[in-house]
Amino acid sequence: MADLQNLLAKKSFIELSARERAKALLDENSFRELLDPFARMMSPWLPKQNIVPQADDGVVVAKGTLQQKPVVIISIEGNFQGGSLGEVGGAKIAGALELAVEDNLKGIPTAAILLLETGGVRLQEANLGLAAIAEIQAAIVALRQYQPVIGVIAGSVGCFGGMSIAAALCSYLIMTQEGRLGLNGPQVIEQEAGVQEYDSKDRPFIWSITGGQQRAASGLVDAYVEDDRQQIQQQVLQYLIQGQPELHRSSNYDFYLNHLQGVDTTVQATPLQVRTLYQGEQA
């Protein structure tokens, strides 16, 4: 009975839209959206290819507070073009992070929360999207000198491509069981290396390699939580209070390079082998 009550009390985070997710994390009535849909900041490139654009280009940027701590939340809508980033959406994210840096220089300790549901760069805006993602990555590195940058990968769209590198630069990463994280998406790997190497239709296998539980067990993310708004909010708040980590994961590259040099790429690694690679016997 207690388990049933706990289940009924939970409210899904994944089922929310990008804008609703941002509101769910912030203190009540503190949500203030920057460049909202009424600003009509749409991609000029999608209509040229007969693709209907979205008024916010699939990126929601909001300022507010979490337990009275000033934050900027950047939430990507995975249901629009697979959460892919182009010129406008990428510029919104980079600009928001750069403004957060300016806040800190002015004595306003603004942290950033990235809600990542993205396949990476938008193919229809390839070079522009790549440039925008590079600016996002530079802004994350600049901001994390002052305040933590917290990434949340909750839904099944996951986080891939150039934005997976941005995720790796975050001070902390939070994932759910449904989330996925990887440099290349399953379909891209299958297309380039063949179905024998990576079957994108084998969902249990895909999640066993790139899913939230596996990434947490491998030490590649900091927290593994359930799909519950309150749990995710509390975990984000914990990292805000904790502040910057002693060593950012991306600064510990010697550890990862040394371990990766011992990988046998002629065979498909199992989930346990991946965990053991990074975590040793404790995996």
TrEMBL record:
InterPro entries: AcCoA_carboxyl_beta, ClpP/crotonase-like_dom_sf, COA_CT_N, Malonate_beta. Keywords: Membrane, Metal-binding, Transferase, Transmembrane, Transmembrane helix. It holds the Pfam family Carboxyl_trans. Residues 1-197 form the CoA carboxyltransferase N-terminal domain. GO terms for biological process: carbohydrate metabolic process; fatty acid biosynthetic process; malonyl-CoA biosynthetic process. PROSITE patterns: COA_CT_NTER. GO terms for molecular function: acetyl-CoA carboxylase activity; carboxy-lyase activity; metal ion binding; transferase activity. The chain crosses the membrane at residues 149-174. NCBIfam families: malonate_beta (TIGR03133), PRK07189.1 (NF005530). PANTHER family: ACETYL-COENZYME A CARBOXYLASE CARBOXYL TRANSFERASE SUBUNIT BETA, CHLOROPLASTIC (PTHR42995), MALONATE DECARBOXYLASE BETA SUBUNIT (PTHR42995:SF1). This is Biotin-independent malonate decarboxylase subunit beta. It comes from Acinetobacter celticus.
